[in-house]
Amino acid sequence: MSETDDKVIEEGSEETREQADSGNAGDEEQSKGLPTLFFFIGFIISLVVGWVVFPAILYSSKKQPVDFNHVIHMELVDNGCESCHFFREDGTFSGAPRLAQCVDCHEDIQTESENEKVFVETYVSNGIEVPWYIYAKQPDCVFFSHAAHVKLANMDCVTCHGHIGESTSLREYEENVLTGYSRDIWGAKLWNMLTLKKEPWERMKMDDCAECHLEKTGRKTSIQTQKDGCLVCHK
Amino acid sequence: MKKERIDKKFGMVIDLDACTGCGSCMVACMAENNVPFKKDETNKLDSITWMRVYKLTNKKPFPETEICYLPRPCMHCEGQHSGHSPCVSVCPATATDYDMDTGIVSQIYTRCFGCRYCMAACPYHARYFNWWDPVWPDGMEKSLSPNVSPRMRGIVEKCSFCFHRYQLALDKAYVKGRRELKEHEYQTSCTQACPSGAITFGDLNNPDHQVHRLVKPDNRHHGRPTAKNAFRLLERLGTNPKVYYLSSKEWVRRAGDNYLDNEETGKPLNLMKELQPEPH
Amino acid sequence: MKLDRRSFLSLGVGASAGITLSPIPWKLMDDLSIWSQNWPWTPVPPDGKATYENSACTLCPGGCGITVRKIDDRIVKIEGMTGHPVNNGRICMLGLSGPQLLYGPTRVKSPMKKVGEKFKKISWEEAISEIVSKLDKLRSGGKPEALACITGTDKGTVPELLKRFLTAFGSPNYLRTASVNDSYEIIMEQMQGVRTIPGFDFENADFILSFGSGIIDGWGSPVRMLTVNSLWKEKGVKVVQIEPRLSNSAAKADKWIPIVPGTEADLALGLACVIIKKSLYDKDFVNRNAVGFENLKRFVMNKYTSDQVEKITGIDKSVIEKMAVSFAKASSPIAICGKGQGRTPGSINEFAAVHALNALVGNIDKKGGVFATLPPDYIRWPEVIMDGVAQKGLNTNRIDGVGSKNNPAGYLLNRLPKKINSSGKSPVEVLFVSGANPCYSMADTHAVNEAFDKIPFIVSFSSYMDETAKKAHLILPNHTYLERYEDVPVSANIPEQIVGLTRPVVKPQYDTMNTGDVIIRIAKSMGDSVKDSFPWSGYESCLKQTLGGSLNKLARKGFLIAGNPRSASGKFRFTPAVINSDARIEPEGDANAFPLILIPKDSMRLTSGFIGSPPFLVKTVSDTVLKGNDVCIEINPETAKKNNLSDGDYTVLSTPKGSARVKVNIFDGIMPGIIAIPRGLGHTAYDDYLAGKGINYNSLVGPVEDPVTGLDVAWGIRAKLS
Q1: pLDDT digit string (tens) for C11-62?
Q2: C16:A54 CB<8 A
Q3: Domain assignment of residue B280, yes or no
Q4: Is the domain of C549 the same as that of C596?
Q5: Cα C554 to chain centroid, rounded
Q6: Which of A54, B164, C11, C701 would be C717's cystine partner, CB 3.0–4.6 Å?
Q7: What is the pLDDT of residues C529-567, one digit of tens each?
Q8: DSSP annotation string for A95-139
Q9: Contact B67/C689, CB-based, under 8 Å?
């Protein structure tokens, strides 16, 4: 069968197609099954590429400079998370602790921990700030008010940050190679890439914020979106 | 009993008698909001100045000439019905929005894709396009404030009434257990800097605020000022701006809108009356 | 199994279906759009802890207090200091632009030595030993007077250290750049017996008569003047502005009275005549607290009747009489002078005549009047130790001629270029320049540069690569005011004695050193008696010892009020010696060859002193002042018509000193026959945001000496357009 013939048949009417099919009765089984098989092969391969290979390429994993143990520190402080992640007097949130806070206790090596040794020798002795990777870091255009959520709405840290305070080790930070954003913001879990979300801290995109704001505050002050105003979270 | 919450409507009153045209407000704005600068800023069409001081003259010959300076921030127009400001209603990207809670017209830089429809719609030339990427000479980027996001080429920017100052002031109030701000806690950078004290800023809906007392806005008539000598730019266009001006000079008030020679300033336009034929 | 076409297509369809159901298209679309919003070259300012520190601004003599906003160790904003007696929370655009000067490209980043035409980075040790060897040579050659020094101010510890160094070294040639205060100091000494700058109690005055002073264009302490201007509006205080051009000050005054430039003294005497004739003067004050009234009376009655003054000044007789009556009838009227921002001194008889008006109405040493406030007196150091060389050097004549014959001026820097240019070999062999940029700011730039080219060794202490630093052989960059401690005595016509303190708000950004420290180090490296006069280990210890207990208070509050308005000791003298109408200052040039008159215009939006305008300032300059790199001149439509010019035309502006291509801006608010050109443009140094824009007014004008004081009092120059 020449290519030209095939084309004629392909583009021909149903009748012609049937004629052609009956002419190849012996191959019928095979030619019916093969396209389906290849469909599924293509389908599966691309799903694997899309769901396994693509995320692996899209995110580059980065080890935190020091493997911090939250559990040990939580036992030593009185005021929970706010002992180290505190509000400044002007209402801004301090975020990841600075060296100055750590030095109070870690001027010298206190324990036999390898991590503490790295921390003291590399950072404390040289007076260099630890370049922590912030899992929950929002892009520059975002203004996030910890005060509004924690002080005004009395929300718990866990609500948005999950159970990081109960961790003994810091997991790897995953950076989106295209945007430079943290994976925690743009969907930590594979299913977040669909619209699914199991826990609030799995994804913190704009729509997640807007949805929660609408649900909790009921404010529809934005004329364009009938949701909360743009400048509530943008700068 | 739940108290009815009245929306805030932040606005500005600029006393043109006091304004000396020194230009502090322009630089206070640029320094506060990370506004970039170029080597040649003399083409004023592409020179980004969220706050711009215009020079008006009475066009009379020497020695009767008079000058008046008029600082022009974004007017944060409310329009004839809630939030129908000229720019917001045309934005195809939801990049500019009117916030009913504060009355501030926002501009979200990362959302804007630079069609400049809003610039065409704005009757006050308050919006500026970034024709080039901002460049700070080596080392000068250290002076940039983290509270305002620097913009990039290809987007539109404008005055935000220093909204980040509102955000920061609220944060400070929240940690002190307060929900509401006092008048002085949220002031724009230009208001704070003005050496002449010509700029007043506050909540136009709050009768205790100075801005309300200065212009006595009539909210039943789209915020029309009822105080003597108070006027708004292009009042009769119906943009309902939130920046008011005070001037004791008639020629200055007249310069604020397109008046016919026989028209009086400070009177609402009655189109029906104007259009009715004279009775014979 | 054969992969036929159909199967292949199925594979494709399957793959497409799979891709569609995978995150690739959706996530990629999302991420790419975010990627397109975040170019790596758009800076993301790092967040951190916000702190505020109080300090003092030194960018002009105004003496404002500033509050510096920092994020961690970066300065992100400068605001006015709330509660400061000068500016109370308010600030001008130059003060706001401070971070641009700190972090800008015009900084000199380390000590530099000129090798050939270029600067080479050197170490502080090398730089200091280089200076010491040059200075040693002068002393061992017995010519210590060949060292000269130019500073921008002579108040405060750093200028005092320089002065002390010169004295210990043996040179009398410590000079300071001129300003309107030179004229005022002389007038205050001759009329009130106190050599000081007058303090005007504007806050309580109720009538202001300004003889061309740019009340809101940067005269005196600019932010204070702007604030007080609003206060006047609120209280209904009348302001009358007398000048040939509708400046902002004139525009905001209650009345603008155009005057033939240079005849201000005549008008003041004419007003005095009306006041005396109508017997509206303060008889009590004149009889009890003044001498020489009869002389003045005779003088003005004879030569300055309203008719005569009308002819001289071009102001209508009735306007003069009305103005005189309103002035005299006000309860606290103040008359001020010093044109524009007061960059240049003024004719001594103009100052005397204007100040005589304040005395005629008795508004001296009282609320709402003029105070003879002495500068704060806190610098009390041990006597300078001088060896024979120093004593011999100090006995030589000052290079500017001050002190030789009954000359009332303190410094006559304006004479230096001529002195050097007329000598075969420069009498100045080593020149220190600190806090001044004479190669830009002195009249007749060409002659000044020629003179500086002849000086064998110039040392600049500038933090910035300005015109004078570019001419220097050695630059020893000072910290900027945001990186150093320094006392800032305020002397800007404020009645109270105020001292501010700059502090290191950030650590030095570059390899710079406080000029005070450099002087002490140079002194200590000198072999002989010079070092004995500098007992301090460094500048900070010197400052601590000088201020003593006040330092803590200064450091805490940022300012200190050292003294209240003070009463003058002597009787007021209406001295005829200075009121001498024949001493009217005429502009240089031939009236036939140059039929027009060029005057400078000052604005808050351009600096014209030591500090060059930072990018923010240049950005705010109107396109009717600067367009591209072309400067616009202001002329009346009538002048334009006579010269066949239309708005926007280019023409050549020529004066006896130089010529330049200019753009025409036709403006009704200027007298016919007058051309106004902005001051503060035409820099050849600094960065691309300032250099090469417009024309330097000083390159078009030459110095005109006041016959009494010798100060350069040129207020303009004759010019033509072609």
Answers
A1: 999 999 999 988 889 889 989 988 888 888 889 999 999 999 999 999 999 9
A2: no
A3: no
A4: no
A5: 25
A6: C701
A7: 899 999 999 999 999 999 988 888 888 888 888 776 666
A8: -SPPHHHHHHHHTS--SS-HHHHHIIIIIITTTPPP----TTPPP
A9: no
Same-domain pairing of C260 and C340: yes
C411 plus C361 within the same structural domain: no
The residues in A 154-213 lying below 8 A from B, measured between CB atoms, are none
Count of residues in chain A: 235
Residues of B near A (CB-CB distance < 8 A)? 7, 82-84, 88, 91, 94, 97-102, 104, 106, 108-111, 147-150, 160, 163-164, 167-168, 170-177, 179
pLDDT in tens, B87-116: 999 999 999 999 999 999 999 999 999 999
Tell me the β-bridge partners of C488: C500
Nearest residue of chain A to residue B8 (CA atoms): A221
Confidence of residue C645 (pLDDT cuts 50, 70, 90): very high
- Selecting from B40, B53, B146 the residue whose C-beta is nearest the C-beta of C45 gives B146
For residue C233, the domain's CATH number is 3.40.228.10
- For the cut 60, the answer to whether the pLDDT of residue B135 exceeds it is yes
Q: Does A50 touch chain C (CB under 8 A)?
A: yes
Q: Give the distance from residue C35's alpha carbon to the nearest chain A alpha carbon, in angstroms.
A: 5
pTM of the model: 0.92
Q: CA of C435, closest CA in chain B: separation in Å?
A: 23
Q: Does C341 touch chain B (CB under 8 A)?
A: no
Domain locations in chain A as residue ranges: 21-60
Domain that holds residue C341: 199-371
Same domain assignment for residues C158 and C204: no
CA distances from B257 to B75, B103, B225, B265, C542 (A): 14, 23, 14, 9, 62
**Shortest Cα distance from B187 to chain C (angstroms)?**
13
Residue A140 CB burial class (10 angstroms; 0-12, 13-18, ≥19): buried
pLDDT in tens, C249-284: 999 999 999 999 999 999 999 999 999 999 999 999
User: Which residues in chain A touch residue B83, judged by CB atoms under 8 angstroms apart?
Assistant: 223
Contact C18 A140 (CB under 8 A): no
Same domain, C255 and C327: yes
Beta bridge partners of C666: C635
pLDDT at A16: 46
Total domains present in chain B: 1
Domain co-membership, C209 together with C349: yes
Residues of B whose CB is below 8 A from C39: 133, 152-153
Identify the chains in contact with B, defined as 3+ C-beta pairs within 8 A: A, C
Within a domain: B263:
yes
Q: Flag whether B5 is in a domain.
A: no
Q: Closest partner residue to C15 among A6, A42, A55, by Cβ?
A: A42
ipTM over the 0.90 cut-off: yes
What pLDDT score was predicted for residue C716? 96
Model confidence pLDDT, tens digit, residues C418-441: 999 999 999 999 999 999 999 999
B59 close to B88: Cβ distance less than 8 angstroms: no
* Residue C708 neighbours by CB distance under 10 Å: 20
Tell me which chains share at least 3 CB pairs under 8 Å with chain C. Answer: A, B
**Is C90 among the domain residues?**
no
What CATH number should be reported for the domain holding residue B221?
Answer: 3.30.70.20
> Are residues C539 and C595 both part of a single domain?
no
Residue numbers in chain A where pLDDT is lower than 50: 1-23, 25
Tally of structural domains, chain C: 4
Provide the pLDDT for residue C565. Answer: 67
For residue B215, what is the enclosing H or E element?
A: helix B210-215
